[in-house]
Amino acid sequence: MSETLIVAEHLRGAMRDVTGELVTAARLLGNPVAVAVIARDPSRLEVTYEGVDEIVGVPVEQAEFENDVYQHALEALIAERQPEVVLLGFTVNSMGYGPAVAAKLDLGFASDVHGLALDGEAVIATRSFYGGKVDAELEFPEGRPVLLLIRPTAFAPAPSGGSPSTSAFSVEVPSSRARHVDFREAAVGDVDITTADFLLSIGRGVGEQDAIPQFERLAEKLGAVLSVSRPLVDAGWMPNARQVGQSGKTVKPKVYLALGISGAVQHLAGMKTSGTIIAVNTDPEAAIFNVAHYGAVADLFDVADELEKLS
Amino acid sequence: MKIVVCVKQVAVLGDEVEFTDDARDVDPDFLDASLNEWDSYATEEALRIRENAGSDGDEIVVVSVGDGDVEPAMRRCLAMGADRATRIDHSGSRDPITIARLLAPVVNAESPDLVFCGVQSSDAVQAATGTALAELLDLARVAVVTRIELDTGARRATVHRELEGGLVDVTEVDTPALLTIQTGINQPRYATLRAIKQAEQEPIQLVAAGEEGEPAYRVRRMFAPPKGEGAELLDGSAADIARRIAGIVQERLK
Amino acid sequence: MARDPKYDILFEPIQLGPKTMKNRFYQIPHCNGFGSEKPLSQAYFRAMKAEGGYGACCTEYCSISPESDDTHRVSARLWDDEDVKNLSVMCEMLHEHGALAAAELWYGGPHAPCMESRSVPRGPSQIPSDFEYLTYAKEMDKDDIREVQQLYVDAAIRAREAGFDIVYVYGSHSYLPQQFLTPYYNKRTDEYGGSFENRARFWRETIEQVREAVGDDTAIAVRMSCDMFMGDAGTQLERDCLPFVELCDEIVDVWDINVSGISEWGEDATPSRFYPSGRLLPWQEAVKKVAKKPVLGVGRFTSPDLMVDAINSGKLDIIATCRPSISDPFLPKKIDEGRLDDIRECIGCNICISRWEIGGPPVICTQNATAGEEYRRGWHPEKFDTAENADNDVLVVGAGPAGMECAMILGKRGMRRVHLVEAADDMGGIMRWIPQLPGLGEWARVVNYRKIQIDKLRNVEFIPGTTLDANGVKEYGAEIVVIATGGYWVGDGLNGCTHDTIPGADASQPWCLTPEQIMRDGKDVPGARVVVIDNDGYFMGVSLAEKLASEGKKVTLMTHLGHIAPYMHFTLEAPNQHRKLHKLGVDIVTSHMPSRIEQGAVVATHVFDEDGHEQTWEADAVVLVTQRRSNEALYRELKDSVGFDTLRGEGITACYRIGDCEAPRLIADCVFSGHRLAREIDSENPEVPKPFIRERRVIERELAAV
Questions:
Q1: Residue B75 pLDDT > 60, yes or no?
Q2: Which is catalytic among the residues C44, C107, C168, C175?
């Protein structure tokens, strides 16, 4: 059947935004859109997006995501429904099973896709290469489904609405070799960067741990909350709770002031829907300028010094 | 115990880029190379597991797919302390499913107790090779691992899987297993000149590539991404820029 | 790489009278310690900037007569034909690179003490110089005026003969023509004094005469200070300068606009400590509104964006640089080639200026170790030949200024592998915390530039967070070892005044601190009252005093010297620094040396008090800025305990040390130390600097056999 099958992404009983984005992406392909909800109780997860034709509930034993479970479920769904295209979010969960399904079934495959189009009947996916510096259009083998992992925030979430039909699909999962035990919150910082109106965000450009207090001071003076990009967390200089980005938090403050952040894709994904983005970086080619509303090619320390003098 | 670490030499693109004549790839003259950042964490993790277990009999084997140009990255891992390296000779499609297919027989032949891959490579960012490889090896797997606690007696490991937002999913996985390793799991060690020199002398085993199968995708066209028109340029001295920023902030926070 | 089109304006030619300058990059007249009597050092120094893309390069102030002799400070001279020959080399080399050559014709009047020539300067009025306090000028009558004007004309003709394309009638910094213009210097009651027209007369006539002599084929430049910040007594923008521009615009080909007099010319050559780039733009803009001829000027411009903005917003036609051209002669080329992160930015420390102020030494630069060494050591800032022993691996221990520079240059010279190993988690050494002192933020550029360059070098690897002991060095696997472990401020009060420790001084106590403890280690400065003991003489004592005072402490700054931070007079930072300390209520105690320190008090005696009366200053905290010592433990262990023979057994053919760990020195000298070793790593004995060329006259003789 010519359909686009989406596997819904959810966590601890709540649907994640990326699922709605997958619906938008799916609608570009023109085929009927089905959303599979693999969960202990699929009916408790809301799938109210315009453009969804069918919701397929796939009940499983496991309370939380386990990759063998999703893999078996998806393989069974593909065998049964023969979708043309399968869309997953490019998320940590999907990384655990999507490529496995593609390898097992010899599917067409690409991940971190941020553009979708049709060339006649063929699906064309756009993704970046070489660290995000170039883009490429991909085409896929004929005669077999294509499984794509779609970059979160690359597509707008579908508006709510729709009146899909629902169905149930049962699947036997023989064994789950990697089993969820427990969740642990990230080390709780003293502040929740997702609720701040004004974020002062610093990146690799600050150079060294000793420079951070200066920016803590500056954030305080400006009335901003200090956030960071991943490298500062990796180096152990700042807690993960402060991290903006795909593996950190997604933020949407009124003002996002980025100093010394080049704009790795994973970081941009975490902040590019902010109200006003101001970026300062010495590299005029820094990717952050592509999403910023205001940009200054300048030394972040010089600008920080001046901002401190003003406040 | 034997740990196989699959590594990649990634291509680093500088500020300038030109494309090949068929516009399906970047002109290699514009590329630099280095060991994939995630793979140095993976190698380090393997080394730490060996050191913590205190057993010298453990072997750490590094495997990579590519032509002779990728050997420097493998030697980096040897210099860090890996024991052996095997290169699978290949210069065709680099989609993650193809790579996994080429890795599978070689990794399988090692009968590893653990297989480590980096979560992703910094150039292609597919985050797929490891999981695809696990499937072809029929190994239990966990992707995006930030902590590993082995229980070799019970033939399992407890790992932390790092979800978006920093939430940790504590997962129990049967071993042997394939784990894709996330940055920040440890602090990769540097190699002394002595170790680097020794690694230069070590032979890297060369194997021919097995069945590739059909690539999972084909690049139709590669191009420079369109620049965002967005950013209004703030010009002038640092003081001028700071003044404008302060003004914009004040305006937007109203 | 390509030039960013937004910088295109900087590369547009511009007409200066009869000459065409190929772009908007102009090296303003500035000193280098070479003058006319080290002609090749002079020529190579200037030509390097022309090679780097400058459209015009100037001499330093160029004396037109023995009456204008600034000895001990070094100026250029155009007194006779021999001077013409010597300076013609500079002109030739500049022309080879397509740059114009300019001579800043200078007559100092009472400011020139004539200590070599023993001539007598002439001036508008007979009042001793405000800083050369022993020098009086002969008060000029009409004959003197004509004669001195003729000196300018004769010098201009010599300049043209030497090949100069531009000649200045230079007045800025309170030299003769500006003295006539300024009531502070000009008390005349004849037609050369009083009203604006009268005060402007000498300068205008001189310009006219010079123009008549050489103006048909040589551009005439005028360098004028628009504001001496002396109120009505000094030159003022509206009253004197703008009318002068209107008056003389027709006979001038290019205006060179700055501010300040001579005794406080740090208001012009602004230290980064007090002023950002572009400080002079408001005055330059004011002149540009009135002048029809091109206007140029300095402003410690390092950012091409600021440069473009200055031109596009109508403030300048030409970007002039002095210090940024010293730190990077290739600034224009790097902008042209889109290599902005290769630009070695001026940090505004004024160490270059300090050498001229001291009088005699050649120019040096913290950022650019090759400044001044172009001829005498043959160093080119952008060219590095492959080392003859490049087939070696090098271990550099310590990534401070010396270590970073050494590793970088070794990398550029093609050493097989260079490992720069550092105990801290990032590069910089002392330059990690020194830029955190008040106002010194731009000094961090020393680290930023090297970090970027080292990152680009494929054969240089930076390894942080790693402390190597002697065994670690021995086992590391390098063939060449360079120890760059830096220095430290002593915690026992050892000092250059008594050559002894200070009884009671003990930085392990919570109330006794060293600079590193405060800035790097975050040691708390207890209580409200702090005494800073400064036997150092440069910036550390005053910077800490300023920092602590601005944090609310009551600070006393004590020195055994007659002045606080005397070296800062040479860097032009002293006047504003004093103002700052005064405003912050810092008590300055000079000529006092502590005889002992105890918790709660510093007891000191006046250095000239033969009876040694003691005075007590109460102190909750005492900061010791008494002297530094080398961190030489690692080197000593390698040399004394392990032994170089043992090292050789491990394959280490050489072990050197550079920078503060050899002997504490200026940051500029640390950078030089690392640079020199790297340049000479393949000489016969790299530990000993190779002889440099001394431009001197040698009498050829047969020497008697020994």
A1: yes
A2: C175
